[in-house]
Amino acid sequence: MKRYLAVDLGASSGKAFLGSVSADRLVLEEVHRFTNQPVDIQGVSYWNILALYDNILQALNKAAVQHGDVSAVGIDSWGVDFGLLDARGQLLANPRHYRNMIGTETMGRVTDQLGKRWIFERSPTQFQPFNTLYQLAQMVHDDAPVLEQARTVLNIPSLLSYFLSGVMSAEFTMATTTQMYNPALGDWDGDLLNQAAIDPSLLPPIEAAGTVLGPLLPAVQESVGMAASVILPTTHDTGAAVASIDPGKQDTMFISTGTWCLAGMVLDEPRTTWDVVEHNFANEGCWGGQYRLLYNGTGLWLVQQLLAQWRTTDPDWDYEKLTELARRAEPFVSIIDVNAPSLQKMGNMEQSLRSVMNAPEDEITSGVLVRTALEGVALRMAWTRHALESITGCKIRRVHMLGGGIRNELLCQFVANATNLPVITGPVEATAVGNLLGQMAAAGEIASMDEGQQLVARSMAGPSYEPRDQRLWEEAYGAFRTMID
Ligand code: LFR
Known about the structure:
Shape: globular
Structural class: alpha/beta
Largest sheet: 6 strands, mixed
Bound molecules: beta-L-fructofuranose
């Protein structure tokens, strides 16, 4: 039996799963799990890229110890961030965390200079201050010394795959998150890069998801105790997650849940009408060259941050305890927009949340804080449903939630209530599963992605939810609309 190792890097943790096909089922085996803890130095937050790489080596080694060999390894991660390599292929600096860009003026400066419409016509993704385009434009603006030495920009999965294989690459699904990729050209947009004073030669050629990079470097093979090929799966985590499910006819809204709630629909072509920009939707690349028309909303970020904050004084806090308190808390004590910029920064989340809540201090218990955050996520998803219908003209009849956030049954129920739609769920490990399917398709283990998605549907479907408490949620949605419009 052939085994494939998926390394899935999220903004707060990393996981490695072995996947194989047995008795017509996809079998997942977790081999390694680790925290992804950014490191703050003097006000700048960095990814601990060496710790991430070291954990990938540990995962490979554990797989070797348990099973002798694996056929391939593939890495996916969050979007937009990158490392810079010098002329000898050495990493020049620690990759920075995209959240440093929140509250900065660079996106405004670049869009004022080039025009939002001009940028969108070339690269029709969501305008986010942290897109690679703006991160690089900021370095240009600041005359960052590393840029002078830099010869190559690699997004995180490509950087780590390069450490393993020695091969530099870019991958289509990740490229579409940068706002430097032009779907009409099928390539980086040279005009856009030149106008932003970014040297186009920094960017390697773009490969399709499912490209085999080559074998592990000999030194890596020696250190982990096995040989394997390195494959570029769908390297953007959201793309990998969505690749794990049959996106259905255009009557289904998927929501990939985790730190973010990424909601949308899979289409054959990017949607480039101006209302996409007005609603701040993205066109992100999918396996096989399709596109997700997608809204990038805050997911469990607020709850993750509350938990991290409360744990510093009481290590007994965990998700179950938080969710139970939220379940028992008073509904709709305050309605918030979970996408508010003040909630996106790292720091004292309890205080940030309290300051956007419109309720007497003594009513804001821990349970209320968590419940307000979850209700807010669900209300944003209801808004996303209506926005998606208005942009596409399609009628959405059900929601398919996938990813780690579906473990939170309260969130799934709230999404059913807020959207007034039935919710189906699964798989929990959508990103790793989508990553595995990409490797299996590349290696010929499955004949097509469709076949893989059916395999997943047979192997790992989760519970379903029906909408409840309609009057209460409709009223809350009305209040939410008034607040954001
Ligand atoms: C989700 C995600 C989103 C992207 C955000 C930052 O993990 O990849 O798609 O907008 O992280 O990169």
